[in-house]
Design a protein that fits this description.
The chain is of the alpha/beta class. The protein folds into two domains: 148 residues, Aspartate Aminotransferase, domain 1 (Alpha-Beta Complex), CATH 3.90.1150; 231 residues, Type I PLP-dependent aspartate aminotransferase-like (Major domain) (Aspartate Aminotransferase, domain 2, 3-Layer(aba) Sandwich). The protein has 14 helices and 15 strands. The chain has a seven-stranded mixed sheet with strand order 4-10-9-8-7-5-6, sandwiched between helices. Strand 11 and strand 12 form a beta hairpin. Helix 3 runs antiparallel to helix 11, helix 12 packs parallel to helix 14 and helix 13 crosses helix 14. It is globular and about 60 Å long.
Length: 400
Amino acid sequence: MTDTKTLLEWSAKYHTPNYGARAPICLVRGDGVRVWDSDGREYLDFGSGLAVTSLGHCHPRVTGAIQEAAATLLHVSNLYHSAPQIHLAKMLTDHSFADRAFFCNSGAEANEIAIKIARKYAHDRLSSDRSEIIATNNSFHGRTYAALSATGQPKYQQGFEPLVPGFKHVPYNDLRAMGRAIDNRTAAVLVEPIQGEGGVHVPDDDYLPGLRTLCDETGALLILDEIQTGIGRTGRLWCYEHWGVEPDIMTVAKALANGVPIGAMLTREAVASVLTAGTHGTTFGGTPFVSSVALATLSTIIDEKIPERAARTGRYLMDGLRRIQTTEPVVKTIRGKGLLIGAELQGAAAKVVDACRDAGVLVLSAGEQVLRLAPPLVATEQDCDRALDVIAAALGKLPK
């Protein structure tokens, strides 16, 4: 077995350098909410692979589906039907606002087709020059070109210009700004119901309902990017349910197959109808293998009422963070829903992330000053207690 030092040297030598900030550990095994590195050290995983492994690592039902699907049929193209893909489309639409589903390979790809279908709908049903997408500052929608152009963070766009035209950005959680921005060129409004990578920003209660009203009044489509917030992460199956509104288009990915790559775009019948034969496609989207794994994941989350569990555990974890806040003034605010939680700090979050990892707990950052917690939705209160102890100790070491 190759030793850790050699593995890290090879990584530095052979990988492209875009992941230069990788932690100096090599993870080799996972079980539930824990992972182990190549030196045998155990970690509590409170990042879930960027909010992906919501059922934890190597969940028995997911593992069983992987084994069965791998031994049955890995891949057929979308020139043919496959039963797992059909069942997954039905399950997603049965448990959401949507009538139709399109499968792809990632969240960025899901946002690409969402942008395309919104523009096609506006072109075909409203006006041939109605193509603008309004997104928000501080958002994150992916790294492919249209998704990158929709993202409201210039740091991700620098050096990749020219971007895809036809995007406008306004402040998040500002209905007046959105109302001023929408005009007869607006095809759609694209927002995250909770901004994740941008800092775990939760909007005011009237924001999403207000966006729904603005879109209804102007004919623009409402696209919700639920790539990070969907599949139970915020304490409901879909984050939009917290505000009693429904989008016209929704994008999902991350947790849908608990770590096997998949994305999906869900939409209403009237919108889906503009995707006529040949207008979009994918080689690998919704293969029998990944659809089978997603079915097992989604069935488990629904059958075992995992969103409700995430809501309870999230309240427990946030209460614990607020107790820490009373003794650690470096913590400015605590925000989030369910098990998507951000703690905004007065200084850089990277030092806390590193200190927690050194103490055996993996956490995330969101921007420079927000500590982000996105543990598996099956985490227990005991797991939370362990994480809270480590976080408190890491914060206590920061300069006052």
